[in-house]
UniProtKB/TrEMBL annotation:
<keyword id="KW-0315">Glutamine amidotransferase</keyword>
<dbReference type="GO" id="GO:0097367">
    <property type="term" value="F:carbohydrate derivative binding"/>
</dbReference>
<keyword id="KW-0808">Transferase</keyword>
<dbReference type="GO" id="GO:0006002">
    <property type="term" value="P:fructose 6-phosphate metabolic process"/>
</dbReference>
<comment type="subunit">
    <text>Homodimer.</text>
</comment>
<keyword id="KW-0677">Repeat</keyword>
<dbReference type="GO" id="GO:0005975">
    <property type="term" value="P:carbohydrate metabolic process"/>
</dbReference>
<dbReference type="GO" id="GO:0006487">
    <property type="term" value="P:protein N-linked glycosylation"/>
</dbReference>
<feature type="active site" description="For Fru-6P isomerization activity">
    <location>
        <position position="361"/>
    </location>
</feature>
<keyword id="KW-0963">Cytoplasm</keyword>
<dbReference type="GO" id="GO:0006047">
    <property type="term" value="P:UDP-N-acetylglucosamine metabolic process"/>
</dbReference>
<feature type="domain" description="SIS">
    <location>
        <begin position="43"/>
        <end position="182"/>
    </location>
</feature>
<protein>
    <recommendedName>
        <fullName>Glutamine--fructose-6-phosphate aminotransferase [isomerizing]</fullName>
        <ecNumber>2.6.1.16</ecNumber>
    </recommendedName>
</protein>
<dbReference type="GO" id="GO:0005737">
    <property type="term" value="C:cytoplasm"/>
</dbReference>
<feature type="domain" description="SIS">
    <location>
        <begin position="215"/>
        <end position="356"/>
    </location>
</feature>
<keyword id="KW-0032">Aminotransferase</keyword>
<dbReference type="GO" id="GO:0004360">
    <property type="term" value="F:glutamine-fructose-6-phosphate transaminase (isomerizing) activity"/>
</dbReference>
């Protein structure tokens, strides 16, 4: 059942080349730049009338939602808010008819997410769920269900369901963008061609996991870890920190690079390794400045950077490589690296990887 792997988590990390592919297979045509989501019960007219997207989720699914915001705002030009379900349901959200809610929940059973989505319906908003489990509770309360095709996930730490959620959000944002005319055929084609290359690039990372293991072992006994990123790499930092803390029990926090000097720098010294997600993009120089900032406090830096980026080596202690890709897709590849980093750290610390203490796979109570 673990197919030769020591843990379900490692098996599920390895399944991502396939699960990512299965999630987009049959849904796109790179010939005309179209995305076909049959399960979506919204007309083009309704898509054009969307005023705002309200994403609701918990934990890792919330981190996926934060990335969704970049996709929807960049590609489709739709203002997007991302709320934690347990906050949303007890808040006083301003919801109107042309707001569309998107619930992201791997299990489809998270109590807070279900309750939050039900409250959106009461406002008359159209609702979409992104889930991995066919027939789960969430599927019975929304107007449209978009499935991730990741297959069953046994490890408590979400891995392949997270990357599959990113694929669905990416496809949905391109679908919206096409209906609204915010990207043209050629731009859509390029985005879809690049998407199709992702499974092969994930496989390349998996083939080089020994390097990630080596790096994890160097820092496995540390007490605190920082993860920093900017723009699309900010949610990646949050997710990297969440994975590390939940399975290795190392205190880890994710920050937006620009926030470091507003407080977190006070905690930094040579005993706090900093993972900087430094893939190429319009904020690359900005993350380099952050790296210099933390190096000045003696912190050791592990960068996640693209193959071929030789500049980064001048500033950091370790580099974990991903194959180059579109700026918006790099988070998928960087996340696979950080999943492996968390896994090998927990392994070195002899932790109960598939069933971390105090955590459950599906949180059906609030
Ligand atoms: C972290 C993790 C949790 C879940 C969260 C939401 O690895 O698995 O943070 O992401 O409990 O679960 P779902 O997606 O089932 O609503």
């Amino acid at each position: 059942e673990k197919a030769g792997y020591d843990h379900f988590m490692l098996k599920e990390i390895h399944e991502q080349a396939t699960s990512v592919h299965d999630t987009f297979a049959g849904k796109l045509s790179e010939l005309d730049g179209s995305v076909n989501l049959e399960e979506l019960n919204i007309s083009d007219e309704e898509i054009r009338n969307i005023d705002r997207i309200e994403i609701i989720a918990c934990g890792t699914s919330w981190n996926a939602g934060l990335l969704g915001k970049y996709f929807f705002e960049n590609f489709a030009g739709i203002h997007t808010d991302v709320d934690i379900a347990s906050e949303f349901r007890y808040g006083n959200p301003i919801m109107r008819k042309n707001v569309i809610s998107i619930a992201i929940t791997q299990s489809g059973e998270t109590a807070d997410t279900l309750a939050a989505v039900k409250s959106c319906k009461a406002y008359g908003c159209s609702s979409i769920a992104i889930t991995n489990v066919v027939g789960s509770s969430i599927t019975r309360v929304v107007d449209s269900v978009l499935y991730t095709r990741a297959g069953p996930e046994i490890g408590v730490a979400a891995t392949k369901t997270f990357t599959a959620q990113l694929i669905v959000l990416y496809l949905l944002s391109i679908r919206f963008a096409r209906a609204r005319g915010t990207i043209n055929t050629n731009e859509a084609k390029d985005l879809l061609i690049e998407l199709k290359r992702i499974p092969g690039k994930i496989q390349k990372i998996l083939n080089r996991k020994a390097e990630i293991r080596e790096c994890a072992e160097i820092f496995a006994e540390e007490r605190d870890y920082f993860f920093v990123g900017r723009n699309v790499n900010y949610p990646v930092a949050l997710e990297g920190a969440l994975k590390l803390k939940e399975i290795s029990y190392i205190h880890a926090e994710g920050f937006a690079g620009g926030e470091l000097k507003h407080g977190p720098l006070a905690l930094l010294d040579e005993g706090t390794p900093v993972v900087a997600i430094a893939t190429k993009g319009h904020v690359y120089d900005k993350i380099l400045s952050n790296i210099k900032e933390v190096k000045a406090r003696e912190a050791r830096v592990i960068a996640v950077a693209e193959k071929g980026d030789t500049e980064i080596e001048k500033y950091v202690d370790h580099v974990l490589r991903i194959p180059p890709t579109h700026e918006m897709l790099a988070p998928i590849l960087s996340s696979v690296v950080l999943q492996l980093l968390a896994y090998y750290t927990a392994l070195a610390r002899d932790c109960s990887i598939d069933k971390p203490k105090n955590l459950a796979k599906s949180v059906t109570v609030e």
